[in-house]
Amino acid sequence: MLRPAAGGQSSVEAAGDTIGDVVKSLIAAHPGLETNLVDENGDVRRFVNVYVNDEDIRFLDKLDTKVADGDEVAILPAVAGG
């Protein structure tokens, strides 16, 4: 669901010192991601999972989670169904 808004790419580069900065960088480069990633308050949507080097940011510092060059950030929308 995110890939079309990112120009069909499964992986993109983004800059920032925190996850919040990375999300802003992604949205600046791919504006179509905004409605899928963040809510009206600028928080990561509840159904979007964000990981830094396989660590869930909900158990770290959320949007204030620090990132460094070379860190891998994975953004995965939750999948539900029955």
Number of strands: 3
**Helix content bin:** 10-25%
Q: Count of helices? A: 2
> How much strand content do the residues show?
5-15%
Say which CATH homologous superfamily is assigned. Beta-grasp domain
If you consult CATH, what is the topology?
A: Ubiquitin-like (UB roll)
Helix and strand arrangement:
Elements: H1 19-29, H2 34-37, E1 48-52, E2 55-56, E3 73-77
Antiparallel strand pairs: 1-2, 1-3
Please describe what this structure looks like:
- The chain is built from 2 helices and 3 strands.
- The mean pLDDT is 94.
- The two termini are 18 Å apart.
- Helices cover 18% and strands 15% of the residues.
- The protein has helices at 19-29, 34-37, and strands at residues 48-52, 55-56, 73-77.
- A hairpin with a 2-residue loop joins strand 1 and strand 2 (55-56).
- The longest helix has 11 residues, at 19-29.
Key descriptive features of the protein:
3 strands; globular; Ubiquitin-like (UB roll); 82 residues; 15% strand; alpha+beta; 3-stranded antiparallel beta sheet
Characterize this entry briefly.
By secondary structure, the chain is an alpha+beta fold. Helix content is 18%, strand content 15%. It has a single domain (3-77), classed as Beta-grasp domain (Ubiquitin-like (UB roll), Roll).
